[in-house]
Specification:
2 domains; five-stranded parallel sheet; globular; alpha/beta; Rossmann fold; 12 strands; Arc Repressor Mutant, subunit A; four-stranded antiparallel sheet; 227 residues
Length: 227
Amino acid sequence: MANERILIVEDEKKIADLLKDYLSREGFELSCLDRGDEVVETVKKDAPALMLLDLMLPGTDGISVCREVRKFSTIPIIMVTAKVDEFDRLLGLELGADDYICKPFSPREVVARVKAVLRRMLPQDAPKRLIVGGIVLDETTRQVSIDGEPVNLTPNEFGLLSVLMTFPERVFSRNELLDKVQGYRFDGYDRTIDSHIKNLRKKIARCLPGREVIQTIYGVGYKLTGS
């Protein structure tokens, strides 16, 4: 992961400098912006390996930035927020953010989250090509197609679909999916799975209208069906 570039979008200089200090020690290249309205063009010109995106920014807020970036890019996005309202965090996830971190945070935790998200972008030791009910997922190329139509997924969406397609008809709890996809578990984070599943369902439904491919097993979790 060393030498991969992280884009930090943070208007509080002390926080930006703290993140730069800890991430640079791990060998990451870093670039910084302190305004939200500069992000889209920056990402279009030279996409980073991952973006740490503050929620409250001058120019354009982080929620709007995330929404615009997701229109053309699937780069991993970790939202950094001082807001305690769960709605704000879940809204960011529903717009395509891969993870969120609440201020005040431990810089070491941020580094761990960044590494965990980037690990999910790497091919597995034994890459698989999975086919279930018209959905084709290739772990080597990290490409997904549904009935022959390419579908762009975020890292978390890809990871969730990979797990569900590897074990079709098996019911996974939210915590099981968190462990397999994100590699860590924190109180309240099981709700993030609901947001990612919701986004994944929307993308599948565009290609397979009227079919409930990912089913909710109430009180338990989720499963993928090939029928």
